Fold this sequence. Notes:
Blueprint: H1 2-9, H2 14-46, H3 71-90, H4 99-129, H5 137-157, E1 164-166, E2 173-175, H6 180-198, H7 204-223, H8 226-246, H9 255-272, H10 276-282, H11 284-302, H12 314-320, H13 325-348
Antiparallel strand pairs: 1-2
Amino acid sequence: MLYHELFENLGLSSGAEIGLEAVAVALAVFLTTVIITHFVLPVLRAKKLGQNISGYVQEHKNKQGTPTMGGICFIMSILLVMLAWFILEMLGFLGQKDNRMLITAALTLCLGVGNGMIGFIDDYAKLVKKQNEGLTPIQKSLLQLFVAGAYLVVMSYTGNLSLSFRIPFTDLSLYLGWFAYPVYLLVIVGFVNSTNITDGLDGLASSITVSVSGTSVLLSCTLGWRYTGVISGALLGGVLGFLVYNRYPAKIFMGDTGSLFIGGIIMGCAVSQGQLLPYIIISLVFICEMLSSLLQTLYYKLTHGKRLFRMAPVHHHFQKLGFSETKIVIMFFVVSVFCCVAGYFGCTVNYF
């Protein structure tokens, strides 16, 4: 309550309060991530837990052996800071507690951690096998379906799952009833794989996540989503801290551990606020990366060997066209910002 009273004494609006709280959490996670990664990186090097680079990506030969599973660093940072935040919130030091939204916040973290654990198993299997394939696609998909299904069951049981889908740029919602469950299931699993696929260049997945999580914070400030704002701020701080080491030339990769965790957190924020479609627009770069791989596979089979792109996912296509990694990352980040602006206004068009 002291925290809330301090903001009231400063005469700040509720949106400004949410923004400052999210920034404070982001800063704490950023610093914690930088410190943890600083100590974890030499351990990963000493243990020779390096990435096995796919042979078909010739441009990445020099990345062979770069430490992977770095997502552990920002996941630990987010969980440590959020644990402290949850304790202070439960003790009443931070503001007006909303038990229902507190549950959804905890479940969002669980969705992220559940997918991160799948990624960890996959990364570890790759290291043990000393190749670029860990879990089989079927094993990975079944585990992801289980985690997403468990999340949806608990969200529904606690009365926090909306069966209506907000249509962007309108004040309309589409009620799907029970059909919403398989839609949620498929979108969540598909999306966490899209963030995984995007993690193919130094700093690419991290930089796109910066734009998406930053927009989620802005939406939270505008629409009064305090708990989503805090979690989005934590994710923003985590990936910014990780970018210190993951920017080109990367000293460490996040691996499936980090990329699947990111997908889970973003989907948790979208589902908990009943804003699945606007968040898809905001995260459109992730979606396009996944679709490029899917279209490449379908086109290859239908045309008996022809390729739609020089290489998929599409960021590798640009590499084959001669673009440098840094240019591709900057280009994708700029496109992501435009998608975020569109998604933001699609979600808030009737608010102003």
